[in-house]
Specification:
15% of the residues lie in helices and 37% in strands. By secondary structure, it is mostly beta strands. The chain starts with a helix and ends with a strand.
Length: 172
């Protein structure tokens, strides 16, 4: 509906029509409209934050097209389930390294926010919540490897002992 038709229906005069036209015109031209945003090919979004999958002897993040350092920090939230018929003792310890160059802490910092520690029965879950600063890693490093530690029977917690229930990593 045009400004004139609207004004006629409301019974306004031509002066009011001109004022209304200016207001409508200003509201459309003052407000910027973003129609598209271009991101570089290696842009970091929550959607492309590395997630863990089960490898043969450890858990590894999915391969990245960009270096890990572009993510700054990665919050690892990994939940595993004890698939064995045995109880085992989860320790407040773990192994974390980069892929492919196998750089380990203290070459990069890791904060253990929360780890399920103690006896884990068959079918029970183990949670790892870690914050990893990957900002200073070389461009050659594109993934992470991880294993938890069992103090009882197995030594390392690996995929044939505990499978992934969820990998909810987020890039900070």
């Amino acid at each position: 509906m045009s400004v004139e038709n609207y004004a006629c229906r409301k019974g306004t005069n031509s002066r009011s029509v001109n004022q209304l036209r200016r207001r409508v015109s200003q509201s459309f031209w003052i407000t910027p409209v973003v129609t598209a945003v271009s991101l570089p090919a290696h842009a970091v979004t929550s959607a492309n934050c590395p997630q863990f999958f089960e490898s043969t002897h450890w858990y590894e993040t999915d391969p990245q097209d960009a270096p890990l350092s572009v993510f700054g920090e990665i919050r690892i939230q990994l939940t595993l389930v004890n698939d064995t018929p045995n109880n085992f003792q989860v320790m407040n310890d773990f192994q974390l390294w980069t892929v492919p160059g196998v750089i380990v802490p203290p070459e990069f910092s890791v904060i253990a926010n929360d780890i399920t520690v103690g006896l884990v029965a068959p079918g029970e879950t183990i949670n790892y919540d870690l914050t990893v600063d990957v900002s200073g890693l070389p461009d050659s490093e594109t993934g992470l490897g991880f294993r938890g530690t069992d103090g009882d029977i197995y030594g390392n917690i690996r995929p044939n002992i505990a499978s992934i229930v969820s990998s909810g990593n987020s890039c900070i």
